[in-house]
Amino acid sequence: MKKKEITALVIIILAATFTGLFLSPLASVHPDGLERVAEDYGFIDKAKSFENINFLIPDYEFPGVENSFWKTALSGFAGVIIMLAIFGIIYFIIYFAMKDKNNISNKNKLLK
Amino acid sequence: MHIPDGFVDLKTAVTSSVFSISGFIFSVMKVKQYFRAKVIVIMGVFAALIFAAQMLNFTILGGTSGHLLGGALAAIVLGPFAGSIIITVVLVIQAFIFGDGGIFALGANGFNMAIIGVFGAYFFYWLIKKISNKKIVFYSAVAFSSWISVVLASFFAAIELGISGIYTFGLTLQSMVYIHMLIGLGEAAITTFIIFFIDRIRPELILTKNRGNSHWAGEINNNSIIGTKEP
Question: Of B157, B211, B40, B161, whose CA–CA distance to A1 is shortest?
């Protein structure tokens, strides 16, 4: 991967982090399109969630944080990290799978 | 547009899940064909960006908000197959970690946003881009495909709710599509802005940009980041 490409990707990661951290708490609190229609036509109360599931970060509110800005900010940040982590893990699984096969040419081709 | 649990019935959930899961498996198989590890890197970066952008609800008129879905963005940057995979990953994480969008309704959400929202967007993007290589055509393709992806996704979401018997079709279906025709303008503005920005700093990161008309994912020209297919 070329250096310039990596720089661009780093910029995008920073933009995503900034958005998740500092912009997400400023987001509109109005109901979204689907919720609006559900309210207007009186079926919003049919929405339910599984009571017995404890979500790690329910409703984008970071658990244990009181401040309303920071509980959203941290959950946005966590989401960005989770996304990068998932694809990072996939990357390394593929990297090591290739390494184990000891197939140098194949690996180089893949990681080019 | 994340459908919560309780809005879709069993038959709709099962049917949409079958479509979503098949689409996901097919996309993984397609991406493996032209796979290079750096595609994974780009996928991760854009998954993070789309997740963050989805949190940014913007107000449209009348006390309603919308947010980016990112289907068109993902499809334009990575092609529809890799794009569909990242939207699916975003939806799964939202459902299981953030409680956004139902778990039972995940198949329906996946169908609307990761299948229709991505492949629908790519189809119109591809169609418009065929007209010419001009910049204005490219950006029209980006803007229109983003807008239509939201409208199509909302249409299918409304259909699923209707089939589930949550409301009677007609006026509700109409409102659902109308409201998302407005939200789609936000989608188009944000997607076009992001694509414009990437096009300025590193156009080769937009993997679909310089491809011919003949394919949706696989064969890629020499200048592309992924490299040519080995002979």
Answer: B40
pLDDT tens track for B152-165: 999 999 999 999 98
Interface test with B, best of A12, A26, A49, A89 (most B CBs within 10 A): A12
Chain B interface mutation, best of A43, A87, A111, highest count of B Cβ atoms under 10 Å:
A87
What phi, psi does A87 have (nearest 5°)?
A: -75, -25
User: What does the pLDDT read at residue B225?
Assistant: 38
ipTM given for this complex? 0.88
Query: Domain spans of chain B?
Result: 10-205
Alpha-carbon dihedral angle through residues B213, A5, A18, A65, given to the nearest 10 degrees: 100
Residue ranges of domains in chain A:
3-45+60-111
**Fold (CATH) for B10-205:** Arp2/3 complex 21 kDa subunit ARPC3 (1.10.1760)
pLDDT digits 0-9 by tens, A38-82: 988 888 888 887 777 788 898 898 998 889 899 999 999 999 999
Bridge partners of B58, per DSSP, are B66
What pLDDT is stored for residue B223 in this prediction? 38
For B103, the closest of A36, A38, A50 (CB atoms) is A50
CB contact under 8 A, A83 and B53: no
